[in-house]
Amino acid sequence: MQPSWVPANCDFEIDDVESSWTVPPASIDYVHARCLGGSIRDWPQLLVQARTALRCGGCVEITELAADMAPAGAVGTEYDQLLATAYQSAGCTRNVAELLPAWLAEAGFVNVTERRARIPVGKWPLLPAMKELGKLYKEVVLTGLEANAVAPLTRLLGWSKEEVDVLVGNMRREVSDRRALRCGQVVSWVAWKA
């Protein structure tokens, strides 16, 4: 899955991030995590493991969605609440962006910095680069709606696949409503091991 043209000093490992890490302590320079909200049961423990694996001066960078779409319509609000309930029933937190700074500090990281960016959902921006970004992000949102909803709603909340299809169809219509100007918000946290 990873490209073959990476620098010689870069390695990718596939493992269960919530199990005990197999890398020796103080052996790596950089840990990157992206969009893991809803999939990690014990973030504080994960961050302790990341800090332990990092060399002094190494950093962790975590990027999460702070808001899938704003403003969220009635269907979007219901969709978000249902997914949050489903993840919570599995012992996971879906929206972790605002919780990460405290967890990073508790794990012993220093110089925790935040970067926020709004991403348009759709081709409504005037600037060509933002228009293209919005077009692409809308496609990401639309194609991810079903993938994000099927397993949590059917396995954890007991919905039928047909019920999920109706919710996803309504959500697609709401996202595609040209009258609404929507943005997503991405937050990146960078923190260092002293």
What report would you give on this structure?
The chain is built from five helices and four strands. Helix 1 links the parallel strand 1 and strand 2. Helix 1 crosses helix 3, helix 2 crosses helix 4 and helix 4 runs antiparallel to helix 5. The two termini are 33 Å apart. Strands 1-2-4-3 form a four-stranded mixed β-sheet.
How many discrete structural domains? 1
Give me the count of strands: 4
Number of helices: 5
User: How much helical structure, as a percent, in the residues?
Assistant: 40-55%
The unreliable regions are none
Question: What is the straight-line distance between the termini?
Answer: 33 Å
Q: Supply the helix-strand structural class.
A: alpha+beta
Main sheet specs: 4 strands, mixed
Q: Report Rg.
A: 19 Å
Described by the principal axes of the CA atoms, the overall outline is globular
Approximately how much beta-strand content do the residues carry?
15-25%
In round numbers, the mean pLDDT is 92
SSE ordering: EHEHHEHHE
Question: Within the largest sheet, what's the order of strands?
Answer: 1-2-4-3
Summarize the structure.
By secondary structure, this protein is α+β, with helices and mostly antiparallel strands. The protein has helices at residues 43-53, 74-89, 100-106, 128-156, 161-176; strands at 28-34, 54-70, 110-121, 182-192. Helix 1 (43-53) links the parallel strand 1 and strand 2 (54-70).
